[in-house]
Amino acid sequence: MNVYRTKAELKAFVASTRAGGKTIGFVPTMGYLHEGHASLLRQARSENDIAVLSIFVNPLQFGPNEDLDRYPRDEERDLALARECGIDAVFMPSVQEMYPQQPLTSVIVHQITGRLCGASRPGHFDGVGTVVSKLFHLVMPDRAYFGLKDAQQLAVIQQMVDDLNFAVDIVPCPIVREPDGLALSSRNVYLSALQRQQAVVLSRTLAEAEQWLHRPEITVEQFLKLIVERIQTAKEAELDYAELLRYPSLQPLEPQQKTAELGEKLILALAVKFGATRLIDNRIFESAEG
Ligand code: PAF
């Protein structure tokens, strides 16, 4: 497995791979890899000739009061996992290498970024769009793999790829969960024992939501009230948002609409804080019509 820290080294590797007519599968990450990342790496490995992983904690996507400085890192463990998953090349640039000067250009996707994490974390998706487009230009992948846990990020990247004609297929990958249902996240390590116990409230609420969604008389507003009440049963939980939206447009629904009459793809998205740790999870419903 090759580890590259400079754009020049990576570009040389990509050029020779492309010259040999080989396909490239790409998994962009911020490191501190877990089984969720490993599932993306294995899929990239199995569907392409060459699999590339990037590890870069991107300062552009963190707000001033967010966890950039304390974002967990473990280079050695990440490289061991990448090796185990059969990755051919890892790109691990420094901040100076990625942003040698203050960038004056950013990639901004409108509308889809106005709600959910885009509303709670202003500027976050501008940072994601900008770094992912830089990475796509460097890695030139045929396919890029993104987890559905960050369903809004996936929608933003797909829109960016469509709007800007990037020659890459975006591959959505299922959420990987702990045995009790908690979605895997690099941020789970911050949870205290009690918070960890109560954090299952997200996945349990999403599981229970299905039956509420299909109740014949329930409106979007009443449905969301049930969701909020369920989250509040966890004493350590502080709700950031609970929203039911169209997916992938993330356009809102009418509060008085009956959920059972919604014949379109929907997302129920949750963000919940446990102390300083903010967890997200979601469930996509093909249609609420029952
Ligand atoms: O999902 C992530 O880890 C990051 O947002 C990404 C896509 C690697 C961009 O920094």
Characterize the structure shown.
The protein has 290 residues and is of the alpha/beta class. It has two domains: 2-173, Rossmann fold, CATH 3.40.50.620; 186-284, Pantoate--beta-alanine Ligase, Chain: A,domain 2 (2-Layer Sandwich), CATH 3.30.1300.10. Helix content is 37%, strand content 19%. The chain has ten helices and nine strands. It has helices at residues 7-19, 35-47, 75-84, 95-98, 116-120, 124-139, 151-164, 193-198, 201-213, 220-231, and strands at residues 2-4, 24-29, 50-55, 89-91, 143-147, 169-173, 237-246, 266-274, 277-285. Strands 1-4-3-2-5-6 form a six-stranded parallel sheet, sandwiched between helices. A three-stranded antiparallel sheet has the order 7-8-9. Helix 2 (35-47) links the parallel strand 2 and strand 3. The chain is globular. The mean pLDDT is 96. Bound molecules: pantoate (PAF). Residues 28-30, 58, 61, 128, 131-132, 150, 153 line the site of pantoate (PAF). Residues 28-30, 58, 61, 128, 131-132, 150, 153 line the site of pantoate.
Order of helices and strands: EHEHEHEHHHEHEHHHEEE
What is the 3D shape?
Answer: globular
> Which architecture of the largest domain would the CATH scheme give at its second level?
3-Layer(aba) Sandwich
Give the CATH superfamily of the largest domain: HUPs
How do the strands and helices of this protein lay out in sequence?
Elements (H helix, E strand, L loop, with lengths): L1 E3 L2 H13 L4 E6 L5 H13 L2 E6 L19 H10 L4 E3 L3 H4 L17 H5 L3 H16 L3 E5 L3 H14 L4 E5 L19 H6 L2 H13 L6 H12 L5 E10 L19 E9 L2 E9 L5
Parallel strand pairs: 1-4, 2-3, 2-5, 3-4, 5-6
Antiparallel strand pairs: 7-8, 8-9
Helix pairs in contact: 6-7, 9-10
Bound molecules: pantoate.
The site of pantoate has 10 residues, from β2 and α6.
